Amino acid sequence: MAPLVVFVLVMFAGTEFITVALIPAIASIAIDHKIRPSRPLGGALAAASVAIVASPVSAATAVSVGFLAEKNVSLGQILTVTIPAGLIGVLAMGTWLYVMSRRTTWEPPAAERELSEATNARPADEPSDLPVGARRSVVIFALGVIAVILCGSFSELRPEVMVDGKTTRIA
After folding, report:
1. Quick one: which of 17, 26, 106, 164 is 20 to 30 A from 9 by CA?
2. Digits of tens for pLDDT over the chain (171 positions)?
3. DSSP string spanning the chain?
4. What global pTM score does this model have?
């Protein structure tokens, strides 16, 4: 489950740095379910790397659009390949990690148990209080992501610039 959640969040945000905030929660949930934390953590980090390529707002995708624009390849065409391929890969990896984690039970060593008890990670089922503007911020960010996707997919929506006396659209 961790790789899929990380894939979706990184694809939406366009940066792998949000994975750092999820590491304590992933480790805590894995320890609680007697799963070796290295499996879901490793899967989550691999999924984050794959999600960068599938993200419509990442720098990697922007570079890809720039390089492929002269071959008439649009952002939409790139995403129709990278999103399904990344999602299939992450689901396959998540399934494999699930099967591997169910083969053996794992008892955390004493040091890791003490560490997990000492961390301030909130249990997954505990409700959280969101600040007043949190939902509004997510909606504004989502609208920005949609705007980037639309501008990347339809060349008519991209701005025009003057270069050497010629008007050209930004690729």
Report:
1. 106
2. 888 889 988 988 888 888 888 888 888 888 887 777 888 888 899 999 999 988 888 888 888 887 887 788 888 888 899 999 999 999 998 888 888 777 666 666 654 554 555 455 555 555 567 787 888 888 888 888 788 777 777 777 777 777 788 877 766
3. -HHHHHHHHHHHHS-TTHHHHHHHHHHHHHHHTT--THHHHHHHHHHHHHHHHH-TTSHHHHHHHHHHGGGT--HHHHHHHHHHHHHHHHHHHHHHHHHHHHHS-----HHHHHHHHHS-PPPTTS--PPPTTHHHHHHHHHHHHHHHHHHHH-GGGS-EEEETTEEEE--
4. 0.66
